[in-house]
Amino acid sequence: MGTVTSFYTDSTESTVEKQFADLRSIQNAEELITYLEETISARFSDDYFNITLPNELNSASANSPAWNAYIASQIVLNTPMLFSTSQLAKYFVPGASGSKNAIDKHHIFPKHYLTQLGYTTDRDRNQIANYTYLDYATNIDISDNAPEFYVAKYRNKLGEDDYKKSCAEHALPINFAELDYMEFLRQRRILMAKVIKQAYLKLCQQ
Asked: Which of 119, 144, 160, 202 is an S-S bond match for 112, by CB 3.0 to 4.6 Å?
């Protein structure tokens, strides 16, 4: 919660001072846990996941806390890379290879394809909702192909059930290849926020 909502980077002094003041009344471990849970719940409300977080995913920043939270969530949920059985998590452990031979961050609507559609700015083409990680072989295979071309291929290869499962794991509308690009981004941001919430709830159960 602290990272995703910038809890300690917005108005740091007043936030910390308030917490120090609150902690004076804490008498035991149970009260501390309750205080922390209430603090988190106040930020991680339904409105945050349904409205605020999708808006924060409207960004082209490669270092966006919301994007990092989404990738962390896929790791928490043991998600394989899109259209693959290779686990995303294994590429983010110490000592893992980050080379081109291992993993690539790929545009779901390829950049060249978007340029042909009239989207000429990186602000539009490099939206974080237009990114996913792919293993190198899948990235090369998809290349600059239009979504309607490569999705049909992988949908047939995976079968309908596994295709839908992969879409759900990667916050993709089932019919994303048929959507207008801006509508695709809008819908995916909502689904990405749901993936983050799902991972958060899983952590709460541990």
From this structure: 144
Q: Which residues are registered as beta bridge partners of 5?
A: none
Q: Which residues sit opposite 155 in a β-bridge?
A: none
Q: Rounded to whole angstroms, how far apart are CA atoms 8 and 177? A: 39
Question: CA-to-CA distance for 47 and 88, rounded, in angstroms?
Answer: 29
Select from 164, 201, 206, 180 the least CA-distant residue to 73.
201
End-to-end CA distance of the chain: 16
Enter the tokens of residue 83.
């259209």
pTM over 0.90: no
Q: Is 86 helix (H, G, I), strand (E, B) or coil?
A: coil
156-203: pLDDT as tens digits? 999 999 999 999 999 999 999 999 999 999 999 999 999 999 999 999
Distances (CA, A) of 37 to 8, 30, 33, 42, 72: 16, 11, 6, 9, 20
CA atoms of 103 and 82, how far apart (whole Å): 11
